[in-house]
Give the backbone structure.
Amino acid sequence: MMVFINNRFLPIEEAHISPFDRGFLFADGVYESIRTYNKKLFRYPDHLDRLKRSLNETRIEFKEIESIENIIYELMIKNDIEDEALAYLQISRGSAIPRTHSFPKKKISPSTFISVQNLKENTKEQTDGVKVILQEDVRWLRCDIKSTSLLPVVLASQKATEENAAEAILVRDGMITEGTHTNFFAIKNETIYTAPKSRFILEGITRKVVLELCERFKIDCREEFIVKDDLKSFDEFFITSTTKEITPVTSIDYWTINNGEPGKITKSLQAVFKKLAEDY
Amino acid sequence: MMVFINNRFLPIEEAHISPFDRGFLFADGVYESIRTYNKKLFRYPDHLDRLKRSLNETRIEFKEIESIENIIYELMIKNDIEDEALAYLQISRGSAIPRTHSFPKKKISPSTFISVQNLKENTKEQTDGVKVILQEDVRWLRCDIKSTSLLPVVLASQKATEENAAEAILVRDGMITEGTHTNFFAIKNETIYTAPKSRFILEGITRKVVLELCERFKIDCREEFIVKDDLKSFDEFFITSTTKEITPVTSIDYWTINNGEPGKITKSLQAVFKKLAEDY
């Protein structure tokens, strides 16, 4: 596996970061995951805009942002990616001694890490739907920044895995925010609901595409928080992410929805999303 | 500088972690900072207990915990620490490919990083007192775990630095929780107040020592949240941490307390703490 780290392409065995990297010491970094369709990075400008926003909010001064796209394509070649790729890129504030909570006084260069892998398609999950569990949202109050400060996500995600669920859906003060790495949607009376853009959610790129599809196909869609105690009043649910695309939710904790059948509107959205991706 | 990393003592230039270390990707790790008095690690058993608790809560299985103490002393020798030392140790869940939010399916070994440095005493701060600023507490809801998921702490701490303050004191829902890397105390009518043990604060070792001193010297001390809007009704303030020990707070945002003079009870506590440390 070849990766890109701090301006060099290297085999993963030779790719190192310093233990004084602030990404390691403080989670002082941001990241993006991007996939390809037809070997082309999907909605790359959106990912780039979000990355710029994350860098801006964390005040990490990263100058080589325009070079990332080519590096990813280069890594796809170097790693002989045959079908579709999933690219991961992370930028931390850089490495400095001594460890200080505040930004280092002397100017340091950010650390860059980029890797690509063969994308595993979740065809079965997307056809059959998945189980999710509900978990308290204990994350920080700036979930709009795609930062590597992800320990709460790790712990909630592990809980989901142990309960044979595909995702943990997070609940803050009785409101559903999003999944650990997905956005959450619920449908009632042919209207789609999802949590509004705020500091409680990350604005997913697939979420954005779904909202665009709703507008194009005149589906009523409201960015409003879904109340946990009202869940049973909804007809359909789905989650979205770069790798899960649009995945139907067929059970939530011990509640099986519609006898475990993915919902109709969810399936229609999947179909138009699939078309859009195929034509990308 | 010699450090200890994954079972080896190495010069820092040769000490590396993988970019796939979950400490780097997810802040999936915990840490401790420990100082010496008379070249002896201060309250080491308390730090060890807290580390065990952090490992337990994050379910990181670290078996070599009993060896840490000797490694730190060894590093003090290898680094020719002449006076007192500040030791930093971090344990992450380890390194795994591919990146998955849940714990890796195959068993991995935790990564260990330990470094020591000459301790810089903050004599002036402790004599004169410091300015602090108030900042919204946007951290996650498990601040009782000493994890490396510290981006909110970095950003708040940087804000303090830019306002020439020594610390940012965090306020959640109108209540003062703690500083970014200190506990916060306020005194009124000879009674000391500090936030109660809960998931909103880290139980500092120096905080614990202060509570013990209060008990020993029959000073009334209450573990109750201090309300931000009541701050001006208190007479004295101080912050505690391993490196700041007991540091008087002489101004909060634009409010100068007692004409900038450290408080009497604070100074008494400093004196008994100093004696305790000297005799350690």
Summary: DSSP finds seven helices and 16 strands in chain B. Residues 44-58 of chain B form the longest helix (15 residues). Chain B touches chain A through 55 residues (CB under 8 Å). Chain B has two domains: 2-118, 123-278.
